[in-house]
Design goal:
This protein is an all-alpha fold. Helices cover 77% and strands 0% of the residues. This is RhtB (Resistance to homoserine/threonine) family protein.
Length: 208
């Protein structure tokens, strides 16, 4: 563990927990996968999102995130790429999905692989996560305590852990609830909600 004081950790955990329960692209993606494909898909999507955030944290530690955040060209390219990706996810949601609550057979299943990779890309292509990581994590670092890198790694690891815990919990809840409503009408409704949500988030990212 890095040299982070207990009082700082308490405030930090409270702040990131509040942030994690605020709806965003990552949460919507996890919920959409759980509602359409079952608990396992929701959990795997949450893991993909968490891996994406771990990469953001690593970029902060290495200083790469600052380079991207201060480069208008790179940042704009990522912003437009993320917006296009979210719109694409919305359009893909229009495709007919399996019955909700259908828990997939195993980790090699194609849907599970897609849930992971799309969760990863949803997080990586969100430029707001880059800005957030660059601006948020350093606020809880005390340079006088020494070993700034260790502090960033500790704070980043806690961030990923809390995100993973919240997203897995939501994914499991959504998957179990959808398993009790296994109708074709419900499946179509979920697909429409996902379409509107992802396209809306993509347009907001493009315009914001």
């Amino acid at each position: 563990m890095g040299p982070v004081s207990t009082s700082v950790l308490v405030g930090y955990l409270a702040a990131i927990t509040l942030l994690m329960i605020t709806p965003g692209p990552d949460m919507m993606f996890v919920l959409a996968n759980a509602a359409r494909y079952g608990v396992r898909a929701g959990v795997v999507a949450a893991v993909g999102v968490a891996v994406g955030e771990a990469i953001h944290v690593l970029a902060v530690v290495l200083g790469l995130a600052t380079v991207i955040a201060t480069s208008p060209v790179l940042f704009t390219a990522i912003r437009w790429g993320g917006a296009a990706y979210l719109v694409l996810l919305g359009l893909l949601a229009l495709r007919r999905s399996p019955q909700p609550g259908t828990d997939l057979a195993g980790p090699a299943n194609a849907e599970l692989r897609r849930a992971f990779s799309r969760g990863l890309m949803t997080n990586l292509l969100n430029p707001k996560m880059i800005l957030f990581s660059v601006a948020f994590l350093p606020q809880f670092v005390d340079a006088s305590a020494g070993n700034v890198t260790a502090q960033l790694v500790t704070l980043g690891a806690l961030f990923v852990l809390v995100q993973l815990t919240v997203d897995i919990g939501l994914g499991m809840l959504a998957g179990r609830l959808s398993g009790r409503v296994s109708t074709d009408r419900w499946s179509r409704r979920v697909s429409r909600i996902c379409t509107v949500a992802f396209i809306g988030l993509g347009l907001r990212l493009a315009l914001g």
